[in-house]
Amino acid sequence: MACNLALVPSPVTWYEAHMLAVRTPSHLDADACAAFRSAGFLSVPDFADPGDVARLRSLFVRLFASPVGFTAGDRGDLIGDRGRVGTIPQIVHLERYEPALLDSPVRQRGFAIARDLLGGDVLLDCETAILKVPGSPDSTPWHQDEAFWSAETTHDAISIWIPLQDVDADGGCMEFIAGSHRGEVRPHQAIRDVDDANGFELVDVDPRYRTICPLPAGAATVHHSRVAHSSGPNCTAIERYAYVMVFVGPRRPPPVKREFMWQGGRARDKRRVASRVGLDGLLNRVLRRAAIVVAKLNAWNDRRRYSG
Ligand code: NI
Predict the structure, then answer these.
(1) How far is the CA of 3 from the centre of ligand 1 (A)?
(2) Measured distance CA(249)–CA(174) in Å, rounded
(3) Is the pLDDT of residue 161 over 60?
């Protein structure tokens, strides 16, 4: 799938966007929002406190050591395919396996930032746990998240990426191409052009224009669903865990009809079908609903207890 159009780098404020500190603990100020709109991403220091990071990390260690998610189709490898076992295992729809996340401060912080950047009504679409094993030679290839979604609606969405240990370029931190969210969704192909690959990669991207975002544990990057991004191999001797929340704002039909040709005939579709009809998928949905009801009852009880 050839493409002669490179992503156009932006001369704008990527440096400011990367370095900008959030001055309040749970909300972005106007400068941070403006920098995000300009660059398509933002680094947020002190996103999660050390206790929450430690709890999430021990949860991830436990989940990845267990078999959760396999039968529901929620467990796989970020870039693997049928003929190749990758080194970036992930668990999607994490909330199905850990209902305690429903009330976590990290999630509440995510909602606050999503509302700041997307406006009023936002939906937490997915939570994912990602492990890049020590010595992993695999990069997460350059892509735009919107290329994975339906072409029939445009998506104003953000992903919040929270490392659960310090991470730099050697450990596989996030990298972005500033301003690339202001163009269209560019042509993608299956990773390594292998049909069964569990994801897509941009066909034409110039990594010379990337911004590398090393982060301490508990900081986060926030990126728009259309900005081009990737992360490198994990050349360190420790596990690189990351917690990702995807928030979506209003969906609208695209101004011009579009087609994402790269989405045909993928292993990913098969996983989705398995997730829809599998007994475990059904059980997970019931448990998730129950967890939501319990969380609402707890919140109602708290309000009642503290309202007078
Ligand atoms: Ni992505």
Answers:
(1) 21
(2) 23
(3) yes
